[in-house]
Amino acid sequence: MLEVKDLRVSIEDKEILKGLSLSVRAGEVHAIMGPNGSGKSTLARAIAGHPSYTVTGGSIRYDGQDLLALAPDERARAGVFLAFQYPVDIPGVGNSYFLRAALNEVRKHRGQRELDAMEFLDLIKGKIKELDMDPELLKRPVNEGFSGGEKKRNEILQMTLLEPKLALLDETDSGLDIDALRIVADGVNRLRNPQRAIVVVTHYQRLLNYIVPDYVHVLVEGRVVKSGGKELALQLEAQGYDWVKPQTVAAH
Amino acid sequence: MPSASSLISPKEHYLARAQQQTDTDLPPWLHNQRKTAALQLRSLDFPSPREEAWKYTNVATLSKICYELPSVAPLTQEQTATFRAACFDPQSWNRLVFINGHFAPEFSRFETLPAADGFLGPLKQALQNADESRRMEPYLGQGITPDEHLFAALGSALWQDGFYLRLAPDKVLKNPVHVIHLGSTGSPVLPHPLWVSRHLIRLERGSKATVFETYLSLPSESGLTLACSEVQLDAGANLEHVKLQIEAPQTDHISSASACLGRDSQYQLLTLSAGSHLARQNLRVRLDAEGANAQIRGLDLLHGQQHADNHLLIDHAKPNGSSQQFFKGVLADSAHLVFTGRIHVHPDAQKTNAYQLNKHLLLSEKAGVDSRPQLEIFADDVRCTHGAAIGQLDDEMLFYLKSRGLPENIARKMLTLGFAHDVLENINDANMKARLETVLSDQLQKLTHDR
Predict the structure, then answer these.
(1) How far apart are CA A186 and CA A159, in angstroms?
(2) Is B197 helix (H, G, I), strand (E, B) or coil?
(3) pLDDT class for B82, splitting at 50, 70, 90?
(4) Is A87's CB within 8 Å of B395's CB?
(5) Above 80 in pLDDT, residue B329?
(6) What is the pLDDT of residue B167?
């Protein structure tokens, strides 16, 4: 589903990803781990098409097409979803209005009928409940005055609503207490299915107790230096990142 | 006679028109007032950018044109359609319509207040009533005087008609008043019509009213609107006042509003301006007795070459008054907006609480804003805060919306609407709010289209 080849990405002329390759098939859950500054979030944002990140080399193929040729909104409508590490507040734009507009854009693209306000309300009510969110959050402006945990749940809410083919979760666990973490993880796990791929970017192994990955990749200095199964995450948790770092130097 | 008027200067032209005003039926006090205004007109020049108050607004173009007062004429179909489009008001509302400055009874419908309750109707009609004329004399032409600038003098000397609302003590006017000003001659013979109106609202002790004014014109028009509104609120009175200005792109609009607030009175003014090539609003509120409150809000939606200038003075004369100014602007293309907000706190006005905030959103690199807060505080126990912000659409917000599948133009429109919408938040009447939201949405369509 996702084929990243030798990807090079810069931000403000500083190269962050230095030839990263990654292959994700439908139905799989991949975890991207790595120390701070290794380029984990850069990878997620580059796939989503953030304008501050310039792709200077390599390729990203998604679902048989050249993802880099698509604008961010086209990528989203084609089924790519990024759960933000720091979701922005959008003053004056009602959460419910925003969610329905986004859902209808995606539905239009899929050839589905657009939902009216009542139909949408019925749909969202159930999803809000699953995530144990306060329904009042629908009436407020997007993310405005939301706590850290509420923002992250709002991200997962959008994900369950838009039903992406490829979901990228950028440090979704940061700032969550253990109960919120479980709720968010349950939300993600409900979305696991053979047609969907999920890429979880995280600094800590903790989240992976709840969202158990099929593969774990370790990113150091903009490259994947080690890949393995879920046990690799435990090893990193126990030993830190230092033991993978020297190998990088030796390997290149 | 356009050929004759082209030979004389605009000022001579207006002086001649002032002399031709044959209002023999006006009360003597008003007749004198008009004569004084004509004399003032003679001694004044068009404001120049060298004057502080007109520094950023150049009226040179319109000062070269001899605008002409239109006479009463039946409406064409197109004019009627334009007028109908502005009629959002439900049946229960009062509606007063002025076409080319003249009262149009055939399109108006309003309740006739019993003399004990006050008066609602066209100003000229009210002046026929000796009691009302006497009641008006201390207020009409006192809030905005002809010596202020040439346009004020022109307005005083040449006004054709306007609306008058007076409410007797404790009278609550349940149904809002919608005043529609349609500037439209629909005639190539009169390429530059002059629409001059004058309004007076006086709410006596403890009375309450809602007034909605719409200024609009046919898309092909290129006239000049001069509008003066004077508001007098006695103790405990409450006025909600909305002004919607959606005049045609080739028109110019210069308006002055002056409100004098009595003890514990409340004045809420909202202006939504999206029309005209050049639009200048002089807004002056005097908190003339203890405990008065003024909430002044404004939203300007400008594109193309539009230029708008909001010139405010909030005059705190007495203690325990509070005022809020909240102005926002959204500018596309090469539009330009000026905001001058002066807060003057007199030595006597202790415990004043004055607040001013203006925020502007630039959708284009060529758009510009000049924002000038001016605080003049002569009392020591006061709270005055002000803030100004000018910015562009936030890239992170834009990316967030696009990453959810919203196309660029829809995302931009959504953010712009989100920016502007809170100015309309405190509108109580649902019909009014819906009307303003529709105008906002339609205008933003123009501002964010294909960018």
Answers:
(1) 13
(2) strand
(3) confident
(4) no
(5) yes
(6) 98
* Spatial distance between the Cα atoms of B376 and B344, rounded to a whole number of angstroms: 5
Alpha helices in chain A (DSSP H): 40-48, 72-77, 95-109, 117-130, 148-162, 178-190, 231-239, 245-251
Higher-confidence position of B354 and A231: B354
Residue with tokens 């509008």: B227
Model pLDDT, residue A250? 44
Structure tokens at A161: 């609503």
CA distance A189 to A196: 11
B405·A73 Cβ contact <8 A:
yes
Find the helix or strand (DSSP H, E) in which A201 lies: strand A197-201
CB–CB of B403 and A77 under 8 A? Answer: no
Give the neighbor-by-neighbor strand order of the sheet with A2-11: A14-24, A2-11, A53-62, A65-66
Does A76 contact B403 at a Cβ distance shorter than 8 Å?
Answer: yes
- Give pLDDT, residue B450: 56
Count how many pairs of residues, chain A against chain B, have C-beta atoms within 8 Å: 76
CA distance A48 to chain B (A): 7
**CA pseudo-torsion sign B19, B152, B276, B102:** negative
Mean pLDDT, residues A9-28 taken together: 95
B357 shares contact with chain A (CB less than 8 Å): no
Q: Tell me which chain A residues have a C-beta less than 8 angstroms from the C-beta of B399.
A: 49-51, 72
Q: Concatenated DSSP letters for A28-90?
A: -EEEEE--TTSSHHHHHHHHHT-TTEEEEEEEEEETTEEGGGS-HHHHHHTTEEEE-SSPPPE
Query: Exposed/middle/buried for B81, CB within 10 Å: 0-12, 13-18, 19+?
Result: exposed
d(CA B350, CA B319): 5
In angstroms, rounded to a whole number, what is the distance separating the alpha carbons of residues B396 and B398? 5
SS3 call for A136: helix
Q: Residue A52: its chain B contacts at CB < 8 A?
A: 395
* Tens digits of residue pLDDT in B17-69: 988 876 668 899 999 999 999 999 999 999 999 999 999 999 999 999 999 99
Mapping DSSP to helix (H, G, I), strand (E, B) and coil, where does residue B312 land?
A: strand
Q: How far apart are the first and last CA of chain A?
A: 28
Q: Which residues contact B390 (CB under 8 A, 6 or more apart)?
A: B359, B360, B362, B369, B371
Radius of gyration of chain A measured on its C-alpha atoms: 18
Helix (H), strand (E) at residue B230: strand B224-233
Q: Does B425 touch chain A (CB under 8 A)?
A: no
Q: Which residues of B touch A90 (CB under 8 A)?
A: 397, 400-401, 415, 418
Q: Measure Cα distances from A6 to A14, A55, A224, B83 in Å.
A: 17, 11, 10, 64
3-state secondary structure of B335: coil
CB contact under 8 A, A93 and B407: no
A48 close to B (CB below 8 A): yes
pLDDT for res A176 = 86
Q: Please, which residues 64-83 of chain A have a Cβ atom closer than 8 Å to chain B?
A: 71-73, 75-77, 81-82
Q: What is the pLDDT of residues B173-220, one digit of tens each?
A: 999 999 999 988 767 678 899 999 999 999 999 999 999 999 999 888
